């Protein structure tokens, strides 16, 4: 197994034990966060006809929900740091249930934007971000595998919800279906109850006791240099802390000077313009081609089954000694693969062609989703991940919000879905190529910095040995005299 990434957690994560129960809770919570907006597309054609709205207007329902989920990231980060993941996830489940119940009483499309989009979206944010964060506290060596298993919740739940939603619509209509779905989402509260905080004190005590003797000698040797350095920086630190303490309480602005974080952020902003729209319009596209409702819904299930298979496999492969040290290249490949799938989609003809597209798209989407947050944690480290994911999601909410409506506008303008798939493919492929180039640059710079740091440590060590020898020589000379 590859060595764990270097972190400053201050304790050793258990990498198992109750952590697997936490992964199961995250499996449910993350699953509903990502699958729920996609599964609602089953109702889009009927709601579109009910309210007499365009493709672009109906696409705003999922778009606002996803954007609210991403925009709620920083708020969720603050609440997780203050109250812990368990309470935040439970509150999120209640919010989504409330939003769906209110949406069932909707009289116009704006009502759905507010209830399903805003209230439900913020509830999903309270499910997603805490689940991602708590995995980083329980796992270090096995973290890619744990993240891959947790992210598998999205296709598993989507493969269940897609046909279930069609059955609920046929039996109860979209209003009754929304009420039932709201009660189903309350399972997130059960998932949140499993997210017990990791016991850090016992593990930290064990580490401190085992390294106490070594640390005492090192601390004594470095005491003079440390005190001098502290005196020189004290005034500067105090002035900076006054200016930034309030801001840094909610946002780590130093991340905007982190090279890897900026690469991730820029590439993702471009990528998310084409990330969700192909899923949102998959079922409507099939219905547009004259395919019946159940077969169109089954495409989402096929997509989810392929997605379900590849996510844990991606986590396992990403945890191997060959991939883990350069996992960013694996992520770049997944993004590019998604773009190629969308560019090839218009070539698929008939239901068989759409099934083939759904399989390949499910594999590509699952690979990307399993790595999406793991690579961010790999870049910034687990201690800064909670703040980093909050910053990323609030910035990404722009393309997440605009992507599906822009795709719907293309469908409205051309009267054909193929231009929408071409546009999404270009966005994904461009971001994938950007990731390949910039991660090559980043890895090269990291290797250079690592070599310089190692050379500096060697030089300091040689100087310390030489200084020690000179001191010993002086002591011997003084003794002889």
TrEMBL record:
Residue runs in coiled coils: none
Subcellular location: Basolateral cell membrane
Taxonomic superkingdom: Eukaryota
Stretches assigned to the Major facilitator superfamily (MFS) profile domain: 19-443
Gene3D superfamilies: MFS general substrate transporter like domains
Region feature Disordered, mapped onto this chain: 213-240, 452-481
Keyword Lipid biosynthesis on entry: no
InterPro entries assigned: MCT, MFS, MFS_dom, MFS_trans_sf, Proton-linked_MCT
PROSITE patterns: MFS
Residues passing through the membrane, by range: 17-36, 88-104, 174-195, 261-282, 294-310, 330-349, 355-376, 388-407, 419-441
UniProt similarity note: Belongs to the major facilitator superfamily. Monocarboxylate porter (TC 2.A.1.13) family.
Name the record gives this protein: Major facilitator superfamily (MFS) profile domain-containing protein
